[in-house]
Write a structure and sequence with these properties.
- This protein is of the alpha/beta class.
- It contains 16 helices and 8 strands.
- Strands 1-2-4-3-5-6-7-8 form an 8-stranded mixed β-sheet, sandwiched between helices.
Length: 358
């Protein structure tokens, strides 16, 4: 690699990765009444990225395999900040914020292929607590195993009913791996939601599936068109990779969390653990569930004290009803969490899931 290209990488990667980290901060702490404060706290890391972005245009064509992912990641990152800044100036509403933040997973998807060649990018896609784990870094630096990495099955943006999948690069078939099936929120998409889990799955060793609902959201009313599709997706993954039958976690946020109850409490559900996050709940769900299914079923409920869509009292009622029905309920209410996904909970969920094999 030429000295100029190396110098440009040194100039571009830090502000790009910092800008992405800050978008993660905004996503985690987004609360409509506090938007201005969140943006003020986030600062302006995108300014440093804008100042060096043009360096990529001068790269020789022989470096296109590195330049193109960086180009796409920079463009998506800056588009996210453009949208956020517009709302910050008073030009837009909460929906405009959500639209801007859709560029965050696009930027991550664009830059992820560079984990194989650029150590700073590889470290970025790790749980911060594991970034200095030399044994993990060595495993990730090795030649990826066959059938590992990110896969999309009929799950391009705009498609419904497909799924996105992550298999750790160091996967081997000689042991059984935990499986996390993560359900997006209303009007979401599995291809985007995969990135809420990828860092932690890559760090701690788990297979992650992020399905996309067959309709605009999960089948919470009317005909259940999603349960059969989820079962088919799980069967597809289990037929190709070695999945531990005792560590099958179904989790999700908002409508996805609610659908964890709807499908996960059904008799015959393949999932051994359920973790609804920021979900709504009706006591009738516990009343009509199969008593044998509920008895000693491990559930991990996560909710934000600041949730403006589904107040935390709903989750407290769910804890009470499900505990009375015989489920083994762990409850976590996060003081500074609004109606957003708390990625910091993922390592805890994986430890809880892995206790099944202890």
């Amino acid at each position: 690699m030429s000295e100029t290209v190396v110098d440009d990488l040194v100039a571009i990667l830090p502000p790009l990765l910092q800008s992405l980290d800050t978008l993660g901060f905004v996503v985690r702490h987004l609360n409509p009444p506090d938007f201005a404060l969140v943006m003020e706290t986030a600062g302006a890391p995108d300014q440093a990225l804008r100042a060096v972005r043009a360096k990529l245009s001068a790269w020789p064509e022989e470096f296109a395999h590195v330049r193109t992912p960086l180009d796409d990641a920079c463009d998506a990152t800056l588009s996210a900040y453009d949208g956020l800044r517009a709302v910050q100036r008073g030009d837009g509403d909460l929906m405009a914020v959500f639209r801007a933040l859709r560029y965050f997973p696009r930027a991550q998807e664009a830059i992820y292929p560079l984990t194989a060649t650029l150590l700073p990018v590889s470290r970025f896609f790790l749980d911060p607590a594991t970034r200095d784990d030399e044994s993990l870094l060595v495993r990730l630096a090795a030649t990826p195993g066959e059938d590992t990495g990110i896969f999309h099955q009929q799950n391009d943006r705009g498609m419904r009913g497909g799924f996105s999948l992550y298999i750790p690069e160091y996967y081997t078939a000689d042991r059984a791996w935990p499986l996390v099936v993560a359900l997006h929120g209303g009007s979401g998409h599995g291809r985007q939601f995969l990135w809420t889990w990828l860092r932690d799955a890559r760090s701690h060793g788990a297979i992650v599936v992020a399905p996309t609902a067959s309709g605009d959201t999960w089948a919470l009313t009317g005909d259940d068109i999603d349960t059969e599709n989820l079962s088919r997706i799980v069967d597809t993954v289990r037929s190709r990779w070695n999945v531990d039958p005792n560590r099958l976690l179904l989790t999700g946020i908002s409508d996805g969390g609610t659908f964890c109850y709807v499908t996960g409490l059904q008799d015959g559900s393949p999932f051994t653990h359920l973790a609804p996050i920021a979900a709504t709940f009706h006591p009738m769900i516990a009343e009509i569930a199969d008593p044998a299914r509920l008895r000693q079923l491990p559930l991990y409920l996560v909710h934000g004290a600041l949730d403006w869509m589904f107040p935390a009292e709903i989750a407290r009622q769910a804890r009470k009803a499900l505990t009375m029905a015989g489920a083994h309920v762990t409850y976590r209410e996060i003081e500074d969490l609004s109606h957003t996904y708390p990625s910091e909970i993922n390592p805890q969920l994986l430890r809880w899931l892995n206790d099944a094999s202890a």
